[in-house]
Amino acid sequence: MRVLITGAAGFLGSHLCDRFIAEGHTVVGMDNLITGNMDNIAHLYGHERFSFVKHNVSQYIYVAGPLDAVLHFASPASPNDYLEHPIPTLKVGSLGTHNTLGLAKQKGARFLLASTSEVYGDPKVNPQPESYWGHVNPIGPRGVYDEAKRFAEAITMAYHRYHGLDTRIVRIFNTYGPRMRLNDGRAVPNFIYQALTDQPITVYGRGTQTRAYQYYSDLIEGIYRLLLSDETMPVNIGNPDMEITVMELAEIIVRLSGSRSEITCIEPTDDRIVDDPQVRRPDITRARTILGWEPRVPVEEGLARTIDFFRQRL
Ligand code: UDP
């Protein structure tokens, strides 16, 4: 296959590039680098099956030659990033998805949308099956990401139903691993950075909110299987066995990194924890049944590898 991956210089986009190259495909990577980092794909420079185009996909996209698949992964994805770039976040989810869909239609390519567990908002149902419609505040600070991704799903389904485009939607739950930015503001990189530099660990609120964490390699496997499957309805990919509180996450990271950091509970005064989901955990029955997929990497093993990566970066 010859595939376009948008957001190619990001955490997940760059790992996807690696997977497609390793499987023998040809990859065109695209990124505007507002949150992506060329270091993530530097090892692919000069590879005969890899090329990179610096471009903002919210503008018209031109790609020469045939494409078999378009994977749309471009978007700020950490709450800090989308609070800092609210309009580009709305644009890449709406205009960027429209442009990548239009490109896929013109090339006769399969399309895969990177959606998110944020479409469920602050859920009233736990775990969340794909059939749950969500509980989202459209006008809150997180609305710029949540509603952009909900619109992205809606327009993807419209292209599927109206134009007959061959589409896939993955709803990605919290994912961590090497190549996350040290300062991206999410709990895993924040806590690891704080632990490795012996600074206080900043747990927001009382730390009772939960997330279910998956290691990036499990996610990439799920996405690869989904693209090759026939499933056109959204599929959750996440690790349901790893639902832990933010306080527990902080404790595990302090222990695994051998840190002297103290765990502190703070109340951010900015928008960071407005509408913060109180629970989150995927129901992965669909992924298990349709893709034969389930997560394999235990959280302590994945976190230990991620801590090693951060240590090297520091
Ligand atoms: N969080 C925290 N301290 C931090 C960063 C995040 O307590 O320094 C909390 C945040 O309020 C949320 C959880 O950790 O409840 C996960 O946040 P993250 O930004 O990693 O991702 P989200 O799942 O909210 O997109």
Describe this structure in words.
By secondary structure, the protein is α/β, with parallel strands linked by helices. The chain has a domain at 2-177 and 214-238 and 282-296: NAD(P)-binding Rossmann-like Domain (Rossmann fold, 3-Layer(aba) Sandwich), CATH 3.40.50.720. The protein has 9 helices and 13 strands. It has a 7-stranded parallel beta sheet, with helices on both faces. Strands 7-10 form a two-stranded parallel sheet. Strand 5 (110-116), helix 4 (143-163) and strand 6 form a beta-alpha-beta unit. Helix 5 packs parallel to helix 7. The chain is globular, with a radius of gyration of 19 Å. Uridine-5'-diphosphate binds next to helix 5 and strand 8.
Bound heterogens, unique: uridine-5'-diphosphate
Helical residues, percent: 25-40%
Categorize the overall geometry.
Answer: globular
CATH domain class name of the domain at 2-177 and 214-238 and 282-296: Alpha Beta
- How would you sum up the major sheet? 7 strands, parallel
Alpha-beta content class? alpha/beta
| DSSP summary, beta strand count | 13
Low-confidence stretches: none
CATH architecture of the domain at 2-177 and 214-238 and 282-296: 3-Layer(aba) Sandwich
Spatial strand order of the main sheet = 3-2-1-4-5-6-11
Strand content: 15-25%
CATH superfamily of the domain at 2-177 and 214-238 and 282-296: NAD(P)-binding Rossmann-like Domain
Kindly provide the radius of gyration, computed on alpha-carbon positions and rounded to a whole number of angstroms: 19 Å
CATH topology (level 3) name of the domain at 2-177 and 214-238 and 282-296 = Rossmann fold
